[in-house]
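ok so i was messing around last nite and threw this chain in just to see what happens. nothing serious, just curious
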Amino acid sequence: MPNTVIAYTDGACKGNPGPGGWGALVKVPGVAPQELYGGEVMTTNNRMELMGAIEALKKVPASSKVTLTTDSQYVIKGINEWLPGWKKNGWRTSKKEAVKNADLWQALDAARAGHNIDWVWVRGHTGDPGNEHADQLANRGCVEFGKAV
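result:
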């Protein structure tokens, strides 16, 4: 679709928890592709997967049609299955426990507001060019910001 923003996102962690990075490749029609990455010294892979999606959506123009591709089942299931219940239950799981990474889930929920997003899962490390690019950016973030060796 010519007016659709395409985003590929990924997270990486050297140890879990450990130094981590997130990456995103964002393609807005009519604009040069944007490579985004960052990281943290001590984090988890799930947090980095969420950060990739959040940071990608921050670069998307308001009210956009977006195809966001990730290799994270955590992100896909969270956004499509778990999030409505968490919000309804005051950010508690069905077992009445606090939702892990609620701060980032809330940030992702806010970042997606106003957009029409198709959330697409792709198996990681299988040669999908966009996913491989996002993986490289996430690992770059892990090294540069997480100080991984």
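not much to say yet. The chain has a mean pLDDT of 95.
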